[in-house]
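Hey, resending since the last one bounced:
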Amino acid sequence: MFKIISVIFLLSIIFCGCDRKTEFVGDPGIPPAVPTGLRIYYASDGEIGIEWNSNSEPDVKAYNIYRRTEFTEPVKVAFINDNYFFDDSLEYDTTYYYKITAVNLWDRESDFSGEVSAKPENRYNPDRPLGVRINARNWEGEISVYLFWFQNEESDVNGYNIYRSTSTGFTPDSSNLIGFTNSANFSDTTSLNFYTNYYYKIRAKDKGGLLSNASDEENDLIFEIPEVIFPPDSSTVEFFEEFIIKTIDVPTKYRIGLQTNKFFGEIWNATISSTIINDTLKIDFNPPSLQVNKTYYWRIATYSSNSSDPNSISKLFSITFRY
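The C-alpha cells again:
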C-alpha cells in the first residue's frame, strides 16, 4: 500500500511539473537589450519598410519606432509587437531616419538601436483601378452616371482620372478626360443625353503624377421616366386591377412599389421585363388588403442590364382608395 501511494505521489509531482508555465517573478530592474539587425527592406513611392531581429528576452513585449528627418527631431511613430514596421504616406523627396527600442513587461525601455535611413522616391506607376461598377441615373429628373470602384491600396495615390467616350474600345487620354476625383467614386453630370451609351475608363494617379493603366471599360445609358397613365397622381379611386404606364424608348425592366407612407413601409411590388417601346403597358395590381380612405404612396422605376440599381426613378405619387 505504501508503495502505491509513493508512486501516485511521484507521478503527481511529475505531471504537475510538466504543466507548470514560465512565470515572471517581478521587475528585474534592468532594461531589455538593444535591438539588433535593423535594416531597410523596402523604400519607394512614399512608403518605407524596416525590420530587425527579435529580442531573445522572454519579457520583451514590444518595440518603439522613432522617426526623424534632416530637419526634425526623432519622434515616436509606432509601438508594435512585431519585428517589422511599414511606414506610408511619406514625401517622395525626404530622407527618413529610423531607430528603435525594445520595451519589456515593466515598461522599461532599451537604449536606441543603430539608425537606418531611406528616401521613398516616386518610381512605380499605381495599380490600375479594379471592381469598377456603373449606374446611369435619372432619379426624379436629376440625370447623372455614377461610377464606383475599389480604393487603391498604395498610400501615394492622390486620386483618379475619369475618361468618357461614346465609342467602345476607346483610348483614355487628354481628349476624353472629363474629371478627377480623390475618392473611389465619381458622378458624371456633364452634357448627358437620354439613350446615349456612355463608355468609361479610370486611371489612378499618384502624388508624383504617374498614371496607372486604364481600368476595365464600363458603359450604361440613361433612361427617361415612364409616363403614368393610370392612376393619376393624388387621385381618389375605386380599387383597380392594373397600373397603366407608357413604356420608354428601349426594352427594359419596370418595377412598381406601393408603400404606406412617404419614406418606407412597402407592402406590395411588381417587376416586369418588357420589349414594348413607346406604347402602353399594363401591370397587374394584386396587393394585400388595403384600407379605404387611407392614402398610399407609389413610384415606378426602370432598370438597365448594366446595373442592379434603378436607372430612372419617378417622383412619389399618392393614391387614396374608396368603395
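The two ends are 99 Å apart (CA to CA).

Sorry for the duplicate.
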